[in-house]
Amino acid sequence: EESHSERERKDVMTSQKIFRLNPLAILGNFATLYGVAFLTVLIPEAFGVRQRGFYCDDASIQHPFYDHTIPMGKMTLAILALFFVIPLLTELLVERSESSSVSYRWRKFSVPTFLVQALVIFGYAHIGLVLQVALTQWAKYGFGRLRPHFMDVCKPIGYVCAEPSQCITNYTCSGTDSHKMYETRLSFFSGHSSTAIYAAVFLAVRSKNQMMMKSFITHQIYLESRLTPRNLLAGARRPVQISLILAALIVCATRVTDNFHHPSDVVVGIAFGLAVAVATASNLAGLCSYSLRPVREPEGRRIFAKFITRGDRKR
To answer: Would you kindly state one Gene Ontology biological process term found in this protein's UniProt entry (predicted)?
Structure first.
């Protein structure tokens, strides 16, 4: 006579849906996404950055130039790794604790469900990342705010300050590094800050009738959605949460100490990254409700899965 657990396993197997993966659709989606990302950088550069003047007594743009403590390229690679590794480990843990109602195949091969689900979260995280990078680029080129090290890099000449509050619009930069001089007009708002906070918040923040700062430090959107309803890794989530938030805040702090951004640039970057992460997690990925309460089975995972499969049939 079959045991109760064996009968349950067979019942799950007979009710499973089979999704057949379409590698071309997966590559096409990511290629399109990165194509849009490329255009968000190319188009603003084609129009050029706004040329703004400066005031003679503006001490906020007279700080020395320092190199990046955390380069954007390395930070982005670290974020992409987190976007894949954390969902991969999380979905593996969820799959081992519960029976899945779906299975995935490619040709004659069975593909682990946790791998596909991790890819889905990876895709949604990319959508929000590209969105916030695009809007940040347009803001930078549109405002053309001068960085704190503008005077040190530009070394403007050909002007005379008749009075301290005079605005100088006609001047010539005598600096030798053309790239640095171009970049010194892209202060508002901080792309490092918005990107770092976006990544941390997408993985790490939710609110549940608590003070904003408390919830900002102690709760997570993605991990709360996938782990909390199942009471998995209850003791291990907190260190991960705190580490992600602290790492993002350190990035934000270096943008001021490196003299690349004014404090207001960083504050706006934090707010913008937070807003895009919450919108992506709730509206696109379906990881949480509008009140940021975690959703056990995110609707967005099923929606995205339809774009990377050839259809489904009952087993």
So the answer is: phospholipid metabolic process
